[in-house]
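During the first year of the project, the team set up a workflow for recording each protein of interest as an amino acid sequence followed immediately by a discrete structure-token representation. This format lets reviewers and collaborators read both layers of information side by side without switching files. As required by the reporting guidelines, we include two representative entries from the current panel. The first entry is reproduced here exactly as it appears in our internal archive.
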Amino acid sequence: MDSTYNFLDHKLKPSVDCDAVDDYFHPVSNLIASDQRTLEGGFMAYSVTKPPVEIVFTLHCPIVVHRLKLWVHMGALKTTSVDVYIQNKRGSFDKVGCGESQSAEIFEFVNNRRISSASALPDCRTMQFPLFPTVGYLLANCSIFKLVLKKTARCVPVLRKVECWGQPARNCSVELKESIERMWYKTEEPTENVSSPSSIPQTTVTAEIPEELLDELTCDIMTIPMILPSGKTVDQLTIEKHSQQEEKWGRQASDPFTGLIYTHTRKPIFNPALKSRIDQFLIKHSHLTQFHQLPRTVGTNLRTAAIHPNITIPTKPSRKRKLEADPPKLNLSCISLENAVRKALATTTRYTLAVDAHKEDTFENACHSCMKSLGNFYKISTCQHLICRDCLDAQAQSQSHCKCSCGVRFERKLVEKHHVS
């Protein structure tokens, strides 16, 4: 059997596990997902995770490893050093390869016993690393292998995509090899039989999105670009989801790249120049189906009409009808402003406590007669009002019995010195 298969394809039913907490939007299960959009999401460790991070893959059957291909970048994030391990018969892992590069975006580990380095010519983004020739017995019977993300470019460990190409091992039965071949070619069989025009696959036209319009975390086109305090540009929806995730752990909203908490002077800022370029790009390619699911960010129904020309835009009701209507009639039954105020206060609900009539007449820390608040004061024991020295002397000279301004008479001996607090 000369055919090679990608044993990390979802059709061959692999499984994956990680020893670190992954990001909510980039779980490790994305590496073997069946949906193409989910597969492109890749793996990203949680924002506070530091390397090393171990990812273990379990294959459907023992295989002969030909090559491993790793996409180690995700936007501005990059993993710079990776080690490869294969599980031996005792259950422990033996190291079979390692690679490190600061500039390469793709790491390719090649088994030189199966593939010659001259046959595979990598591009400028790919860096090839040979698998150790001394562990050929492990490469010829691999069921479980492990990737260790050892170093990063001062960011969290990321892995956008993984491929493991090889053939079933020699100790696999013929039935198992045939079942793997059927599983691999299962989706390609309907396209070979051309029975009707509907069975012919239709090619969809897609547009290449400029890298500056992509979110540096999710690698999706942005709708509302925001500049983070770290200088990175992400979509507003990404910031909101990250803040919600931080809130679940009892933490304040922070920069997803640096972890610094937002303040009044350090917070995301809207990028209007990039927003205009995004809108121009979407309007220019609004006929393509790949942009139909994007949320509307400009206009009212103009965005919907640009994408779906068959939709009719409902007209808004005119405001002139409201202006032509008769003005509301005012209730002019009150004769004067004083009556109107009195009537309004009578129907108004009061939320303050009612004040006692006796307490309302009292004047604390002031003379009850002249309302003076400075000087020597005396307290009248009969009515509990205060009177200053000047008012008390004036009443004592004019009449035998003094009289408070409230109308209560009192004698001079019933007045006591009062110290104002």
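The second entry, processed by the same pipeline in the following quarter, appears below.
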Amino acid sequence: MKYCFGIGMSSCLNIYRQSDVYTIVPRMTVVIVVVVMAECSEQEPKWPADPYPRPDISYECMMGSTANNVTTEENNRSRAPAEDADESMDAGSEEETWVFYKDREEWADVTPVPQDDGENAVVKIAYTDAFTDVFDYFRSVVSRGELSERALYLTEDAIHMNAANYTVWQYRRKILRHLGSDLEQELKFCREMIEMNPKNYQVWHHRRMIVEWLGDGSKELRLTEIIFSQDAKNYHAWEHRQWVLKTFKLYDGELIYVDQLLEEDVRNNSAWNQRHFTITQTTGFTKEVIQREVEYTKAAITKVVDNESPWSYLRGVVQHSEGGLGSVGDLWEWCQNMYNEGQRSPHLLTFMLDLMEDQMERQPDLRTTQLKRCHEICEALATKHDKIRREYWRYIERNLSHRFGA
């Protein structure tokens, strides 16, 4: 009977057994890792098939500037990780192999620095040989303070293997500055990496730094639009777009673009947020703008009453009015008409509560009748229309009674 460590985590990992030690190979972001002691039998365990097989692609496509280090000679060198998933190649093509840095003549003067996991690593990650080779040489380059063209190419290989390694990105910027490299070319490389890793903090930050150095944000709005065509709610792209708009004052046409997004998907909460951001940074919420936005939002709500995004936007708009929530247009009558027509969306009822609360704040003589109505709506939300938040509505009911009751 033997004992081994069991690994509990998301299915985005491959687990391999080497002798009596179980190791893991990272595939995507690890969600949770729990180390537990489990009793293991002498028999070799049968692991389930990999639910996320790696794509059958050439590593040459992944290695960017150093692709010339991929050779077709047949030898015993390890192939790149991307080729491990499938032994077959296209008909008529020769097998491609990755040339390790330790086998490259131009790197013969560098002594690699291995990763120090300590004497007794609990869960040792089974890096591929190519990954280990690249990062061993990267650590050596950093320790030497080398800021050369070859070091720049090395960072590119390291980024392709782990685009989330912020140390590599930072050191790459240091090299770019030192060499006075072509930053337009760097923007092209950065765009490639963003398209491969659209939700990676480090690559977006790197893009921002390069744009800052260039002092030119003219390409950035188009880049974010390309990303939004794939994922309209990509937080990183929206953050980058807002930074570009503020930094380079490129607000012209932004509301038109937001209109297009909302026309395509009225539930796009990111677009609603961008609308508020754009108005705040440009005209501000003047009396005329508030009235315009209220009518615009009412039309959007009419399309899909259960869409929470425009209700939140509407609340944010009317809060800019000095006369209170109910002072803009005919919001109370509009809500009451929908209610009378049988509409019981939790968002409608919640907005009606907000309007009545504002009325009770400003007009004490209405408190008795409006408080009774508030109790009825809270009860309806708690028991019929939003039961999952029952206790919350009970709390709101008590709170209103405490504030406006006799």
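For the second entry, the following points were noted during internal review. The longest helix spans residues 367-385. The CA atoms of residues 13 and 27 lie 5 Å apart. Both points are flagged for discussion at the upcoming steering committee meeting.
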